[in-house]
Amino acid sequence: MSTWHLVDPALRPALQSWTPSTLNAEMLPALREQRQQAALDAMRVDDGLALSMTEYFIGAQPVRVRVITPNTPRANRMGILHFHGGGHLFGSPEQSRPTAARHDCVVVSVDYRLSPETHFPGSLDDGYAALVWMAEHAEALGIDRANIGLMGDSAGAGVAAGLALLARDRNGPPLAFQNLMFPMLDDRTVTARDANPVTGEFIWTRENNAFGWRALLGCEPGSDGVSPYAAPARAENLAGLPPTWIGVGTLDLFVDENIAYAQRLIRAGVRVEMNVWPGAYHGFSSDPQADVALRARETRQAWLARVAG
């Protein structure tokens, strides 16, 4: 079913330059290099943000983290542990910058291990190591240890949601919030028999979703025994999680799993805000000009300022 007529008109120009492709392992090295170069090029643009960026290698693995801090010295800033998107297949910490300036906070972005080279729980272990390090070094980083939260996009938002569950279950560092943009939460979306007919045509397709989950899990998505820390929608108990924001578009493959997760969080007594944007596909919020993308970015940041800032 063609859903072009459902796309927000302001988002259509970006789709005209998009070439549909089905991901495979052979494509990943070139795709990763391309994405990283684009991220580095964007960092070189003088956007007026007065930020300092420092790299650390932490833990036994070790894990690379990129710490982004406003240049003005101050203690007890909000801390955000950020996870980039990329289907568990590509992406890097270099994709994250502006939030630190907007909220006068410290952003720690994690270079978590990618799949299929590393199956679950590699990315989650990297995230937990970064969270513990961030909490233990809060004073040195200028962070308020009681105001550390998680933020992620797509697959990174799925890692963040799994980390929130793990931190709760391990009695790890307390979390002030989780801020999730179109999170990748449920491997069973791949095998759903009653698939939503208007989702998944653009950017992140059903075929690529299946490849991403297969790469992460090392088994077929929908299999028995998949960990809820890998696919948070499988968690039976969502009580005790921090205040949560979820954003997604109506044409996004993840819209149904995101709505279902928000409903379950509400039933578990978690403070939840969810925004669903009509006519928006996966990744739409990165569009630099479309009004719906601007509103999505502003809504997301306003929630952070209101709930956690």
TrEMBL record:
Residues 80-284 form the Alpha/beta hydrolase fold-3 domain. Keywords: Hydrolase. The keyword Hydrolase applies. Gene3D superfamilies: alpha/beta hydrolase. It comes from the Bacteria. GO terms for molecular function: hydrolase activity. PANTHER family: AB HYDROLASE SUPERFAMILY PROTEIN C4A8.06C, ALPHA_BETA HYDROLASE FOLD-3 DOMAIN-CONTAINING PROTEIN-RELATED. This is Alpha/beta hydrolase.
